[in-house]
Design a protein that fits this description.
This protein is an alpha+beta fold. It contains 16 helices and 20 strands. Strands 11-16-12-15-13-14 form a six-stranded mixed sheet, sandwiched between helices. Strands 1-10-9-8 form a four-stranded mixed sheet, with helices on one face. A hairpin with a 2-residue loop joins strand 6 and strand 7. Helix 15 (473-482) packs antiparallel against helix 16. The longest helix is centred in the C-terminal third of the chain and has 17 residues, at 490-506. It starts with 38 loop residues before the first strand and ends with a strand.
């Protein structure tokens, strides 16, 4: 997620290719290898971790979203509902949240789950010693920013306390419009201090090196293998609500292999992550579109280490020379949408009940002649006659090679510009992003919660996800205002966030390419799988596998 933003889509947003990555091919074998009541699915890159403080990618979050639970959960429509907390209240000023846990909660190993498990987990995640890339998401909780920055050495000052064994009280620095939604996000799940301490550095490196608070237990993962599963957790407070025998996972790298296994009956779904697969299967009755809140984009290295990219006219020229409509139609088979900002359509509504993206629309149009003019002006300002830039992309997603080739051809129409392509494994791309070891890099972000700041927060000066290191004081002020003084003022917050989108566009801070969508084949005998546009994206506890 931090590196959920590095989710690279296969069809732009195909969940199986979200997290962008490389997953070693492997399948479960024959369709009789597990119970008929077991859901059979897959992921497309190697699973990374089940340490709740350290996970960053979509697949790790998916496993955690099914095996753990937070204070709150989500309804089928994505609205916050009771989770491990049976009820909660909020003070009039929006700064104090009190959660009342259910009685007799247990971890999967039978030990008691109490309010202290939330306090320990949250303190661990924001503690700089943990080096959590998702500590930033705690911003707005009292003292979270100063603790994670290392300026407040007292992690116990974080705004969360256990009033008693069943009551969690959270104090915020300012009202947070997204706070209830965040309470179902994996980074806020409880953790057991005794178990974590015993596991030490092995925590989350195997399925046996974790315990679980949710409807399933995770079993069979040794840290490197390509088949594992979820089985019902008998110690879950509502174990009777789980409607299936579990979920069998395999790791399948090749999208065509996944489709073949689906058609053989070895899988219950297969994401169509190439144009060929989409075209070949689009007329089938089991073809299904699944919504996503995801944006793929080019990020520019603006640290000053890369010639030309600190010049706004050069970045603007690169944006103008990006034919998003052609990319969508020719490379992604029109699966997805042409973006008009960083915040995708369908993520959230404004105070006036309009889709936020439509109210914040910017003119990310294609205009090669204007691009040439601005590029020439920018080159002159920088004293350059030639410019060599490298475009880095993930090696393991089918479309990225096509995107790289397309953009190389497009951008090299700008006189004096030479583009080299660099394809690297997913994990290397994550590291290169974090270390600013790139010129231009193709990445994505999958929303963590249903509010525009889940995208707009990426580009504040202090954001750990601002890998290009673009910085704008007016932008920082607008986003800060949206999350503080205007947090409870719907219309004012909308205006702050709309201004943020405008500043991003005017400054050519980044280059949004596609808003994601997933299309897949889904077994008609399976119903009840829940797909969410933010957080843990696929939830299985309500899924039923029918005989007919």
């Amino acid at each position: 997620m931090v590196k959920r933003n590095t989710i690279i889509f296969g069809t732009i947003g195909a969940i199986v290719v979200i997290a962008a990555g490389t997953r070693v091919a492997g399948v479960w074998g024959t369709s009789g290898s597990s119970s008929d009541a077991t859901i059979k699915t897959y992921i497309s890159t190697d699973l990374t971790t089940q340490d709740l403080s350290k996970m960053t990618d979509t697949y790790a979050f998916e496993i955690a979203g099914n095996t753990q639970e937070g204070l709150l959960s989500k309804s089928a429509s994505g609205k916050p509902i009771a989770g491990l907390a049976k009820s909660w209240t909020t003070s009039k000023d929006g700064l104090t949240w009190t959660f009342h846990l259910r009685k007799n909660l247990k971890w999967s190993n039978g030990t008691k789950l109490t309010a202290k498990d939330f306090v320990y987990a949250w303190r661990r995640t924001v503690n700089p010693k943990t080096a959590s890339q998702y500590a930033y998401i705690y911003s707005g909780i009292k003292n979270a920013d100063t603790i994670s920055a290392g300026t407040d050495k007292d992690v116990n000052s974080l705004g969360i306390v256990a009033k008693n064994a069943s009551t969690v009280v959270v104090t915020l620095d300012s009202p947070q419009p997204q706070f209830a939604s965040l309470m179902s996000f994996p980074s806020f799940y409880p953790q057991n201090e005794a178990f974590n301490t015993k596991a030490g550095k092995k925590l989350g490196t195997k399925s046996s090196e974790q315990i679980y608070s949710g409807p399933y237990k995770f079993v069979g993962w040794n840290g490197t293998n390509t088949s594992f599963k979820l089985i019902p957790n008998k110690n879950y407070y509502n174990a009777k609500s789980v409607k299936n025998a579990g979920v069998d996972y395999s790791v399948i790298k090749n999208p065509a292999t996944a489709v073949q296994e689906y058609k053989r009956g070895s899988l219950d779904l297969a994401v169509l992550s190439t144009t060929e697969l989409q075209t070949a299967n689009s007329k089938r009755n089991d073809y299904k579109a699944v919504p996503l809140a995801a944006t793929s984009y080019f990020e520019y290295n603006q640290t000053g280490k890369v010639k030309g990219l600190n010049n706004q006219k050069i970045r603007q020229a690169l944006n103008l020379a990006t034919n998003r409509s052609e990319i969508l139609s020719s490379i992604y088979n029109s699966v997805g949408k042409v973006p008009t900002g960083m915040t995708p359509a369908g993520l959230s509504k404004t105070a006036s009940d309009k889709d936020f993206a439509s109210t914040a629309k910017q003119d990310y149009s294609y205009d090669l002649e204007k691009a040439k003019q601005l590029f020439a002006e920018g080159m002159k300002e920088e004293g350059l006659t030639k410019l060599n830039l490298t475009l880095e992309l993930t090696a393991d997603v089918p479309q990225t090679k096509l995107v790289g080739d397309f953009m190389k051809d497009s951008w090299q129409k700008l006189p004096g510009l030479t583009i080299s392509e660099k394809f690297v494994p997913f994990k290397q791309r994550l590291n290169d992003q974090t270390d600013q070891n790139f010129d231009i890099i193709y990445v994505n972000w999958y929303g963590d919660y249903a509010e525009p700041t889940t995208f707009l927060n990426l580009f504040t000066t202090s954001s750990p996800n601002n890998d290009g290191k673009w910085s704008n004081a007016s932008y920082d002020a607008a986003i800060k205002k949206a999350l503080s003084t205007d947090a409870q003022k719907g219309s004012a917050r909308d205006q702050d966030e709309q201004l943020g989108e405008k500043i991003l566009f005017q400054g050519s801070a980044v280059n949004p390419v596609i808003w994601g969508q997933q299309v897949q084949l889904s077994n008609p005998k399976v119903s009840g799988i829940q797909y969410f546009t933010t957080g843990a994206g696929t939830i299985y506890k309500n899924a039923v596998k029918h005989d007919k």
